[in-house]
Amino acid sequence: MPCSGVRQGCVGLVSPQCNTTCGRGVKKRIVLCLEIVNGKIKTRNPADCDVAKKPVEETTCFERPCFKWYTTPWSECTKTCGIGVRMRDVKCYQGKDIVRGCDPLVKPVGKQTCDLQPCPTEPPDDSCQDQAGTNCALAIKVNLCSHWYYSKACCRSCRAPHS
Fold first, then answer.
1. Are strands 90-94 and 67-71 parallel, antiparallel or unpaired?
2. Can you list the positions of beta strands (E) in the chain?
3. Sorting pLDDT into bands at 50, 70 and 90, what band is 7?
4. pTM, two decimal places
5. Is 99 helix (H, G, I), strand (E, B) or coil?
6. Residue-wise pLDDT tens digits, 34-64
């Protein structure tokens, strides 16, 4: 028999907390069929209460918008060969607003190196001459031809095969 009369009815015991601290979540509560007998509350069988009057047990909730890191796509590499750098914007949003509440420990990187194919070496210059006053024999002996200065100042000596 459904709940009838003033002293009998369905009661929702509310759990007011949303199950999330931000964004969309769920609020749940326990709904019981109760009766007051001689001033005391007595739990009844759920079938004794009117199902049509039973309050909902679960409802959606929305807390403040969540903080979230957003990134733009990576830029082109600053070099077309060799090692360069590419960048992107990294911003913290709460809903549609840029804010400062995101966790810095999980912040995506905004700058990284890009290692492309090696740059081509300059073609040999047949007109290169060693600069006067540079000790190119010593530069060859101590393997300085890979250094930028000696590769230019001793271009002819550094280009020649050595034994």
1. antiparallel
2. 8-14, 24-37, 40-43, 58-62, 67-71, 83-87, 90-94, 97-98, 111-115
3. very low
4. 0.44
5. coil
6. 888 888 888 888 888 888 888 888 999 988 8
